[in-house]
Write a sequence for this structure.
């Protein structure tokens, strides 16, 4: 399905909602956030744990976003922010209008994205208060993990936009030992540090939830956790913040 780059002028906001969490205190650091999952993603990561619930990209039915906006409005005072996740939320051209609607409620707006559409991210940036950029690998390794040739260049453009915009952000990498060696991970992290990334999170893949059945089995020769924790300690010299999650 081809989803247009921008919505029709004056049209109602339409977003295909795949899920909603009324409160998630980890989606946006330091904020009491609601988490809105949008359906559809152009990538095919083997470790993905949301693909089964996201489903393929689709056009939204009338009223889907209106229902979510109503839930958010009812929780003003209980929430500080709303975070759009997925799937890949920048797939959808009505996302800037939805971000504006959230800001009109007094909510900060966060975004989880892999950066495959830098031109859409650029349009969103003035509306965003925080971004988590999913960094799946370095150069061609990104394409291999994501299952889409050439996507790493789009991601690199998105990273450049974030570095220039001044919007608070972190890069985060989901670690599955089918995709990385310890040396690969360190090289990726140091490349990000050299680019100017100041906050980095490494999150362990949850094997039981992985999309690809081959990813649900533990890797026999995976490095021990102690080796990963040693790497994290080394990386802290190069970042303002490094976290190991999971």
């Amino acid at each position: 399905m081809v989803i247009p780059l921008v919505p029709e002028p004056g049209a109602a906001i339409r977003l295909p909602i795949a899920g909603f969490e009324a409160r998630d205190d980890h989606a946006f650091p330091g904020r009491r956030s609601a988490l809105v999952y949008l359906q559809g993603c152009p990538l095919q990561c083997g470790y993905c744990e949301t693909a089964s619930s996201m489903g393929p990209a689709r056009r939204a039915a009338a009223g889907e976003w209106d229902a979510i906006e109503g839930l958010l409005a009812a929780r003003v005072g209980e929430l500080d922010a709303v975070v759009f996740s997925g799937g890949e939320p920048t797939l959808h051209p009505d996302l800037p209008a939805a971000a504006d609607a959230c800001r009109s409620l007094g909510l900060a707006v966060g975004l989880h994205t892999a950066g495959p559409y830098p031109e859409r991210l650029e349009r969103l940036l003035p509306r965003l208060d925080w971004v988590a950029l999913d960094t799946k690998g370095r150069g061609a390794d990104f394409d291999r993990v994501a299952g889409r040739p050439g996507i790493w260049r789009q991601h690199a453009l998105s990273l450049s936009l974030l570095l220039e915009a001044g919007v608070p952000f972190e890069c985060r990498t989901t670690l599955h030992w089918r995709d990385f060696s310890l040396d690969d991970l360190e090289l990726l992290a140091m490349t990000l540090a050299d680019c100017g990334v100041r906050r980095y999170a490494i999150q362990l893949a949850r094997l039981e939830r992985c999309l690809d059945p081959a990813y649900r089995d533990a890797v026999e020769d995976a490095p021990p956790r102690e080796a990963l924790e040693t790497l994290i300690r080394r990386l802290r010299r190069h970042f303002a913040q490094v976290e190991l999650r999971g």
Remarks:
- The two ends are 35 Å apart (CA to CA).
- The longest helix spans residues 151-165.
- Helices lie at 51-54, 64-74, 95-104, 118-124, 140-146, 151-165, 182-195, 225-235.
- The chain has one domain: 17-244.
